[in-house]
Specification:
- This protein is α+β, with helices and mostly antiparallel strands.
- It has nine helices and six strands.
- The protein folds into two domains: 160 residues, Beta-Lactamase; 32 residues, no CATH class.
- A six-stranded antiparallel beta sheet has the order 3-2-1-6-5-4, with helices on both faces.
- Helix 1 runs antiparallel to helix 2, helix 1 runs parallel beside helix 6 and helix 2 packs antiparallel against helix 6.
Length: 226
């Protein structure tokens, strides 16, 4: 089992991740910077970032580190949301830790990792304000490399880069089959803002039957005369 992080190493890593998140100009740059920071504290042979692709209704491998060109896992690979470990993490918004992939194999696609010499991995969801956008996975050629504590720290790592990654992802995280400028969110937000702003007027308008009916001519005079 890998010795766990000390407080100094932990916060040094988070500090570096924050710097990466605000200085790097693209998803791959952010991802590779994250990998460099992780390498100092979490041993791995491979790291992958998959993001939701609304045009496919699936996850797409967006960036990798440590993968050979002839591997099954390369940038652009489509990963089903139901039949892959990436998809399971994305759908359930929970982490997976495989300590011995030979013994814990669950999805057929995991066999490709075994073929590449991978023996353990840890995968966590990328979540922004309760909305899922993708998955980060670290993999090792050794068994028993990762534990629940690694999953917790990787979730913390993802929290420090997810906002920057999301800024480059062109879809609405709440309505996964829409673009970044989501008409459902605009309509909902606009409608709520209008209702809040004009609540008093709408109430008066409703009391009048919703039509703003005018009083009959001379009505005011008759009311004044009693």
């Amino acid at each position: 089992m890998t010795p766990w992080l000390g407080t100094v190493e932990r916060y040094r890593t988070i500090s570096e991740l924050n710097r990466v998140a605000v200085t790097q100009p693209g998803i791959n740059d952010i991802f590779q910077g994250m990998c460099r920071a992780l390498k100092k504290v979490i041993p791995y042979d491979r790291v992958g970032l998959s993001l939701y692709a609304p045009e496919n209704g699936a996850l797409k491998l967006a960036a990798i580190n440590g993968c050979s060109p002839d591997s099954f896992y390369n940038v652009g690979l489509i990963l089903d949301r139901k039949d892959t470990h990436h998809g399971w993490v994305f759908e359930h918004q929970e982490s997976i830790v495989r300590r011995d992939l030979h013994r814990e194999l669950q999805f057929k696609v995991e066999q490709y990792n075994i073929n590449d010499g991978i023996r353990s991995y840890c995968a966590v969801p990328l979540i922004l304000r309760g909305a899922r956008i993708g998955v980060i996975i670290v993999l090792s050629s050794q068994t028993n490399r990762y534990s629940g504590r690694h999953a917790e720290f990787l979730r913390e790592v993802s929290d420090h880069v997810v906002l920057s990654i999301k800024s480059f992802v062109p879809f609405c995280p709440k309505h996964l089959h829409t673009n970044l400028i989501c008409p459902r969110c605009i309509a909902s937000g606009g409608g709520q803002a209008t209702a809040a702003k004009h609540k008093a007027r709408l109430s008066d308008w409703g009391k009048q039957g919703g039509r703003g009916r005018k009083k009959p001519a001379g009505g005011l005079a008759r009311e004044g005369l009693g």
